[in-house]
Protein: Bactericidal permeability-increasing protein
Amino acid sequence: PTAPPAADEPMLLVAVTELVANSAAFAYFTAGALRRNLSSDTLPRRFPLQLRTKSLGLIAPQLQELYPDQPMELQLWARRQPLLSCRPDALHGTLFGSAEAFVVLPNATRVPAFLLNIDANVTGKPTISGHRLGGRVKLTGMLVPQVKSLENLLKFGLWLFGVPWANSECRLRVSP
Structure:
């Protein structure tokens, strides 16, 4: 066993219960804060799927035929409150989302293209490195019913870009 820290040493104690985590999830959900609009401008250039009908032609060939190489927008939102559980090793969450895609015509009219439900399981672990408090996020499961090719592409995109972005944003500086 190690000795407790001396009174003059900085210490941070963080405690999160499932009640606190789920209350926060409920508040964000009911306030409508779990919504995001995406366009090609908001995605990293290296993202494997650009939001254009040409790129999504593999998933929905009719899009490319009807609207050749037009830009698209994607609206993401939580269709149910996220469920969170606290365990000694990590914070686990189940996210229930929907995504609606729109084709953006040259006159800025938005034409609905498709609607998908996307459910994901994530795990978050806190980390402490020097004077930094952070966390690591891991995608542990994803389900896009009836669209296996899109599910695989989304998993790859989240693994390659979404999770690293979340991990880079999950850092706080703790001053001594």
